[in-house]
């Protein structure tokens, strides 16, 4: 039952609800088969992340006092039981979709993936040769015997191993155990085998290693082997989820109780209990750190299944170039004529690349400030920044410390940028810069000119053609002036509370004014509704978890304001609660591209306002990061965003409605034609560039 005195859906269960939405897409026969495999891989990745991020928190909350748990309306033991039952049910459905639907669908496309089945005799010779000539040199077999120190870690995190039980011919009564690494980082997870019977065949590299264990352990009889993978970088997100004072109380209690973040070991289905007990004893692994994971461990690799045929993928959508750019003008001269709004990935990224490339060589450019959020070597931006610095520009970057990215890669690029004279400022651990922004300052005869990039997604994402984001290029005086104030603050690395006087009137910045401004905007809609004036609130967002903003949306709905929430991930707001949220509709949108854009739309008595943002409505984003929200001011661009949102609201193909329990309910609407938002928005961008600005329609 839902506690109406605490009307918020649990974050953990909402995460799992979103995971199930991915399974629905994987089970949709109208989706091309390789794209369905990608959704299964995405589901497996999100489940892995759930265990890495959410399970440690739940285990930790089981150690805190009852008064804290009661305040949070949290019952960890029963919630963990519900979570594990839900995950188990989803994993069974995952396996049913893969074996009962997707593997046969691959077969119909002339592709066979060996899945826990004997290899055909015609393939054994190829596999033996591949093992001897290529694979063998990458294997590191380790016996687990009494001479090995328990303190020495058996498992390297994030790698797949086989644990092998065998007997030596000299002592057949004694069992021997060994670990063998599976070198998927060198060869990929799937090995293509010779064509047979007119079909292309693939095998998991795990099975290639398994098939040749007798060669690796000469003189031993192989009895059984099972996959296992260790995940050690679990996270405790207490400070990211709770106000500072409460978070400190929780952390102090955990410290007193010597709470240790658990490691996690995911093992293949069928591994006997006695093998887990052997590993627990030899490696000092608590039994509660073992989790079963289907017939193969680490199935996110399904997302990287080889591309074999265009029929197995979504049809290619060619990036659409902007037509209003005059090649005789610089990007800065173009922006003086008006803002440019890119709808990604439908638009070409060329204007963004041009923005930074021209800034690097323009003799009038003096300064470039960029919030990178994360460094990625695949980003086109880094070379531009290095070039700019070598050309005498003052270049400052703000980078989040993030262990999820490749640390060595980060160090290499950081070193290259520092060697070129780029100033790198790292985010403070408790205050990360999540905003996706850049500022270019030019000194011309009439004075300083400022140009800005304001985005909903980070630069490391901008080279991906799989993510939906929006990016605004502008020379708007107030926006660029306030962005310079933000970068000035970031250069101090001081607490935001020391800078309350910063006059952010056009930009809304977390730590300064964003939450308060959102509350004011919703309050205005409530007042307008009470006065009989036009009112509505439409929110498109990744995550909605902040209770203060959820309460305000409840208040708006109760006042009669139509509230539409479109999420792509988790949502703590419960729609359809009688007398609380029966005027609020929540939908979840999942399609071929990953949704990352945040859009906030307010009616404002008919003089509507539209904002784009990098900020989800979570405690972490609102209180522990620097995030940004900015208005779309140009009327033509607002018209575009109105239509973009309208397409999401009207989507009856890839959106689902969330009920009281966040079940993903397919939309049954025969009153209008089929609307698929991502497809409609691609056609919208085509129309914009073919015919000109979109006009406002009701």
Explain what this protein looks like in three dimensions.
The protein is an alpha/beta fold and 698 residues long. It contains 21 helices and 28 strands. It has a nine-stranded mixed β-sheet, sandwiched between helices. Helix 13 (350-361) packs parallel to helix 14 (381-390) and helix 17 runs parallel beside helix 18. The relative contact order is 0.09. Belongs to the polyphosphate kinase 1 (PPK1) family. GO terms for molecular function: polyphosphate kinase activity. Its EC number is 2.7.4.1. It catalyses: [phosphate](n) + ATP = [phosphate](n+1) + ADP.
What's the SSE blueprint?
Elements: H1 11-26, H2 33-61, H3 66-71, H4 76-108, E1 111-113, H5 121-135, E2 142-143, E3 160-168, E4 171-182, H6 184-187, E5 190-196, E6 199-204, H7 205-211, H8 213-216, E7 220-231, H9 238-241, H10 244-256, E8 264-267, H11 273-283, E9 290-292, H12 331-337, E10 340-344, H13 350-361, E11 365-373, H14 381-390, E12 394-399, H15 407-419, E13 423-426, E14 432-433, E15 436-444, E16 447-455, E17 467-474, H16 477-490, E18 508-509, H17 514-530, E19 537-541, H18 547-559, E20 563-567, E21 584-589, E22 594-595, E23 598-602, E24 609-613, H19 619-623, E25 625-626, E26 628-631, H20 635-650, E27 655-658, E28 664-666, H21 677-691
Parallel strand pairs: 1-6, 8-9, 11-12, 12-13, 14-25, 17-22, 19-20, 20-21
Antiparallel strand pairs: 2-4, 3-4, 3-7, 5-6, 7-8, 10-17, 11-15, 15-16, 16-17, 18-26, 19-23, 21-27, 23-24, 24-26, 27-28
Helix pairs in contact: 1-2, 1-4, 2-4, 13-14, 17-18, 20-21
Pfam family, one: PP_kinase
Keywords: ATP-binding, Kinase, Nucleotide-binding, Phosphoprotein, Transferase
Function: Catalyzes the reversible transfer of the terminal phosphate of ATP to form a long-chain polyphosphate (polyP).
């Amino acid at each position: 039952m839902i506690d109406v005195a605490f009307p918020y859906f649990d974050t953990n269960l909402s995460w799992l609800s979103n995971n199930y939405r991915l399974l629905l897409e994987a089970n949709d026969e109208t989706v091309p088969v390789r794209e369905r495999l990608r959704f299964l891989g995405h589901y497996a990745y999100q489940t892995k992340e759930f265990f890495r991020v959410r399970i440690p928190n739940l285990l930790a909350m089981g150690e805190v006092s009852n008064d804290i748990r009661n305040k949070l309306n949290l019952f960890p033991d029963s919630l963990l039981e519900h979570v594990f039952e839900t995950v188990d049910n989803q994993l069974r459905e995952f396996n049913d979709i893969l074996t009962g639907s997707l593997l046969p669908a691959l077969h119909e496309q002339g592709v066979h993936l060996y899945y826990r089945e004997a290899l055909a005799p015609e393939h054994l010779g190829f596999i033996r040769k591949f093992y001897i000539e290529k694979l063998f040199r990458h294997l590191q077999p380790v016996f687990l015997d009494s001479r090995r120190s328990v303190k020495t870690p058996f498992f390297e995190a994030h790698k797949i191993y086989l644990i092998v039980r065998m007997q030596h011919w000299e002592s057949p009564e004694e069992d021997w155990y060994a670990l063998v690494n599976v070198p998927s980082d060198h060869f990929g997870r799937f090995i293509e085998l010779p064509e047979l019977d007119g079909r292309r065949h693939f095998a998991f590299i795990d099975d290639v290693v398994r098939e040749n264990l007798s060669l690796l352990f000469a003189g031993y009889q192989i009895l059984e082997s099972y996959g296992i993978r260790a995940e050690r970088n679990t996270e405790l997100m207490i400070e990211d989820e709770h106000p500072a004072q409460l978070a400190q109380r929780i952390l102090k209690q955990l410290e007193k109780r010597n709470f240790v973040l658990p490691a996690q070991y995911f093992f293949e289905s069928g591994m006997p209990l006695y093998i887990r007990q052997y590993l627990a004893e030899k490696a000092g692994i608590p039994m509660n750190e073992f989790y079963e994971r289907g017939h193969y461990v680490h199935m996110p690799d399904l997302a990287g299944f080889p591309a074999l045929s265009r029929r197995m993928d979504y049809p290619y959508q060619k990036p659409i170039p902007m037509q209003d750019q005059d090649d005789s003008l610089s990007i800065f001269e173009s922006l003086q004529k008006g803002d440019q709004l890119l709808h990604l990935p439908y638009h070409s990224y060329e204007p963004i690349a041009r923005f930074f490339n021209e800034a690097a060589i323009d003799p009038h450019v003096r300064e470039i400030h960029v919030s990178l959020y994360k460094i990625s070597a695949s980003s086109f931006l880094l070379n531009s920044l290095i070039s700019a610095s070598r050309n005498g520009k003052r270049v400052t970057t703000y980078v989040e410390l993030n262990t999820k990215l490749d640390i060595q890669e980060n160090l290499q690029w950081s070193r290259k940028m520092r060697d070129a004279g780029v100033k790198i400022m790292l985010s403070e651990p408790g205050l990360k810069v999540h905003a996706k922004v850049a500022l270019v300052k030019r000194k011309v005869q009439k004075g300083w000119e400022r140009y800005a990039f304001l985005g909903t997604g980070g630069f490391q994402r901008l080279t991906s053609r799989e993510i939906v984001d929006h990016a605004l290029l502008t020379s708007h005086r107030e926006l660029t002036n306030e962005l310079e104030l933000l970068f000035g603050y970031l250069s101090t690395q001081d607490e935001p509370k020391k800078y309350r006087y910063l006059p952010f009137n056009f930009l809304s910045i977390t730590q300064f004014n964003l939450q308060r401004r959102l509350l004011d905007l919703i309050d205005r809609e409530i007042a307008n509704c009470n006065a009989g004036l036009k009112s509505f609130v439409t929110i498109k967002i990744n995550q909605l978890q902040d209770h203060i903003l959820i309460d305000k949306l409840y208040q708006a709905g109760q006042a009669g304001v139509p509230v539409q929430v479109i999420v792509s991930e988790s949502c703590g707001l419960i729609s359809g609660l009688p007398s609380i949220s029966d005027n609020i509709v929540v939908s979840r949108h999942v399609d071929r591209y990953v949704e990352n854009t945040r859009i906030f739309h307010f009616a404002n008595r008919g003089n509507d306002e539209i904002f784009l943002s990098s900020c989800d409505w979570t405690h972490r984003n609102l209180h522990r990061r620097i995030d940004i929200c900015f208005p779309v001011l140009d009327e033509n661009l607002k018209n575009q965003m109105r239509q973009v949102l309208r397409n999401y609201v009207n989507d009856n193909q890839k959106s689902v409605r969330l009920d009281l329990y966040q079940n993903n309910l397919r939309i049954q609407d025969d009153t209008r034609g089929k609307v698929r938002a991502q497809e409609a928005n691609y056609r919208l961008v085509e129309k914009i560039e073919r015919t000109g600005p979109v006009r406002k329609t009701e």
